[in-house]
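Dear colleague,

Following up on yesterday's call, I've attached the two folding results inline so they're easy to grep. Please treat them as preliminary; we haven't cross-checked anything against experimental data yet. The first protein's sequence and structure tokens come first.
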Amino acid sequence: MSTEKQFDVVVIGGGPGGYVAAIRAAQLGFKTACIDEWQNAKGGPALGGTCTNVGCIPSKALLQSSEHFEHAGHAFAEHGIDVAGLSLNLGQMLKRKEGVVKANNDGIVYLFKKNKVTFFHGRGTFAGKAEGGFTVNVSGPTTDSISAKNVIIATGSNARELPGAAFDEKVILSNTGALTVDAVPAKLGVIGAGVIGLEMGSVWRRLGAKVTVLEGLPTFLGAIDEQIAKEAHKLFTKQGLDIQLGVKINSVTKGDNNVTVDYADAAGAAKSETFDRLIISIGRVPNTNGLGIETVGVQLDERGFVAVDDECRTNVPGIWAVGDVVRGPMLAHKAEEEGVAVAERIAGQHGHVNFNTIPWVIYTSPEIAWVGKTEQQLKKEGVAYKAGTFPFMANGRARALGDTSGMVKFLADATTDEILGVHIVGPVASELISEAVVAMEFRASSEDIARICHAHPSLSEATKEAALAVDKRSLNF
């Protein structure tokens, strides 16, 4: 094998975990390659994985566009802005979304060149062990055989199919198809009231679809703080989302241009709904298809994830795995942190990932964001705690924005006052949560946040006020 095809580190997968791992490895002085098979419409590379191509980035682009449309149609008049003849140009909206995706794709190509990461466009497959490392074959637009001392698996995840309802991405949609619907459906069904279901349901409701969300669990957003979930449910229902809980799906029957869902509601009554389009968002499964891990002996766990230890090492020395393909939350930023940590561990450093301070966000309107423990978790664990809340309706900046929905909630240890969890439903919660993440990473108390000066008027004052409320001394509510 020629020397130019030998590397210190090879990363399989160019999503958030993979491309960041490759860049960090290169920064640390390793000769690094990254393999990724995503293609754009012209067959060229489309780095960024699910997140950039059919996940985080395009969904946020459509969420932003659809929110503008809804504001123009309903909220602008209150501000003294009259919009006559409002119409939707869905083609332009989708075109803008694709432009945002391309900018991110191209940005990663630039970063690879800047950091001297060698990119191979195709599918990476383990071919076996080589002298001092492993051989990985690349097939697709690029065909090659390369070797490395260390290989990082960052192949991500795929949408989970509902048995009997295979994705065709035209009528029965995964997150991929939900981003490319070419006309607003009159009736849209969503199976699964999770992050993807709520975000995509929100997009199409704002654009004019009647949206019904069918959730199998008896509680809404059961993984988040119960008080926040109840507030979010109330707000989404008021907006027009028809959210049905405790549903049992009996069958999904696809027609020529529609789909019928037969189900039992929470009371057991038989129901049937016909939708123009159906989004299925019931979770994701790790992507190990065609990876060839059996040739090198990498083990999977009982759920099909690549089995790793706390430092993302597989059972085979020199092979690592990060992101959605391993245990832990399926979040792009979690994958990035693991990618950086693994690159640093390969270099003999001590990479840092704290699962207790990984923030979660649902980019609906209002947004939902949280970090740390929920109130129900603390009760179950028998932890004595204090809680403080502050509503955005009492925040001056929120009033000026015209969005006073939701609240900030702090949970702190009853004895030490250490912050144990922060939960937000409200405007730009995704940005506000970062203060809580920093505070918890440094084991701050609610008193620390309460004593820090926050700009006025700002939404972040609601964070300060919720921290004050832990000690029952909120100043503005």
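Below is the second protein, in the same order (sequence, then structure):
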Amino acid sequence: MRTLGLDVGTKTIGVAASDELGWTAQGIETIKRNLEDPEKDWEKLSKLITELEINKVVVGLPKNMNGTIGPSGEACQQFADEVKHRFNLPIIMWDERLTTVAAERMLIAADMSRKKRKSVIDKMAAVMILQGYLDSSS
């Protein structure tokens, strides 16, 4: 069984999954959110949860630098509640402060073009969120 990591944004959802031993996180994809028919996002997530045999979900929680939770954090908490309701899986909210910044720096260091970075940044952030969780629980 694997753990799924999600970097939830208003336009995209970065998706990562652990290996079967729960040691490493791998980027799976970036789901472009369908604002006209959000049910399509849930169908895609459901398919991934089934295919990857997911038994737990880690959702990035964007906190303000002072530790408070703003509108983005509240939206992620609502998303996590919906994941729990739809899929009956344990949910872990994981502090994701600066993961997107760290992911961007890593991709720049790898000399990736701006266009390519834009297409993988959310997936990389999901990897960093999930890996942080996996490292803390080992």
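For the second protein, one point worth flagging: The CA atoms of residues 20 and 66 lie 35 Å apart.

Best wishes,
A.L.
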